[in-house]
Amino acid sequence: MILLKDISYEWEDGEVALKNINLEIKKGEFVLISGKSGSGKSTIGSVMNGLIPHYYKGRMQGEAFASGKDISKLLLHEVGHIVGTVFQDPRSQFFTTTTDEEIAFGLQTICKSRDEIKQRVEVLCLLERK
């Protein structure tokens, strides 16, 4: 379950993105958040997946929980084990420019060893070339 309680968020430049948002998503539910450009859809997703407050450093008020755990107290990779988000622009979800680096990055975020990352990247890149 994801629970947002009275979430407000202001970007570092002072722009208010969210104001008093309350949302409950129960286990097994799939949710689509739609709206006009700039309405806060991606910001809500960033609160749910932990990018806010762990990556984006604006000012957040309220509480966000995933599976009963306070998202602000979890490590970012721990949130990733609980919450998945897909944004409107897939390019904004990639952090590298090559397939093997992107695979490695994903494995790094869940604390896999260098040897395991290397092995998995080699296997997946071989499969990709078939």
Summarize the topology.
Blueprint: E1 2-10, E2 16-25, H1 41-48, H2 51-54, E3 59-66, E4 69-70, H3 76-80, H4 99-109, H5 114-129
Helix pairs in contact: 4-5
Keywords: ATP-binding, Cell membrane, Membrane, Nucleotide-binding, Repeat, Translocase, Transport
Pfam family, one: ABC_tran
Domain ABC transporter: 18-118
What does this structure look like?
The chain is built from five helices and four strands. α4 runs antiparallel to α5. The longest helix is centred in the C-terminal third of the chain and has 16 residues, at 114-129. A hairpin with a 5-residue loop joins β1 (2-10) and β2 (16-25). It has a four-stranded antiparallel sheet with strand order 2-1-3-4, covered by helices on one side. By secondary structure, the chain is of the alpha+beta class.
